[in-house]
Here is the input.
Amino acid sequence: MLTVTPIPAFNDNYIWALHDARDIVLVDPGDAAPCIEFIESHGLGLAAILVTHHHGDHVGGLAALAAKYRPRIYGPALENIPARTDAVADGDTITLQSPVLRFSVIATPGHTLGHVAYYGNGRLFCGDTLFACGCGRLFEGTPAMMAASLDRLAQLPGDTLVFCAHEYTLSNIRFARAVDGANDALLEREKRDMTSRRNGVPTLPSTLALEKATNPFLRCGEPALIAAAQARLGRPARDTVEVFAALRRAKDAF
Here is the structure.
């Protein structure tokens, strides 16, 4: 039976561990130490690592893990990923035998130019593209790139479990309330997620249906979000990309 466990790292990262009774797959291991502790304490073999992008808090543990366990390391072909064994690009398929997993690679440029997500088995590992009630900053890409990436992820089934890489949910909800405060689903989400954090429980995974109902960056065509963007622009928005860009700038300054 497959289990997905968050391994906390740094201040707010989650390294996702997908494991059965024998082997484990890690997603974005920015720090090797907690991964090694988890692997050794559970008596597992490290079969593979999936990397979404090149930032240090996602790849910092690769060299040590590669030296100790020699796993397959899958990472975006358009980025420099340390110790990568398999370069992947949009449309590629990854098939693993233990644990039994199959992922489709989805290009999601925006946060970085080569960022990818991994979708399969009803789960989406999306790194720093889609967050719970938010999205990643645009360090390398354009608003149009990120908006297109988010739109693409939004086409996945609503019951898809969303595993992003950071526990940013409550701060993202605070911004969402500032631009979409009449959204009842958002207010209910805030109550649930505040309770989770008070109890020391991750707010993740989310579901894609919940994100589409509450995440302002997936709701750029909704009247409330258009109005919020136009209030910040001081004029009508030309299209949903401009709505997205205005909201992303507002979040950066929030």
Observations:
- The two ends are 42 Å apart (CA to CA).
- The chain has a mean pLDDT of 98.
- The first strand starts at residue 3 and ends at 9.
- DSSP finds nine helices and 14 strands in the chain.
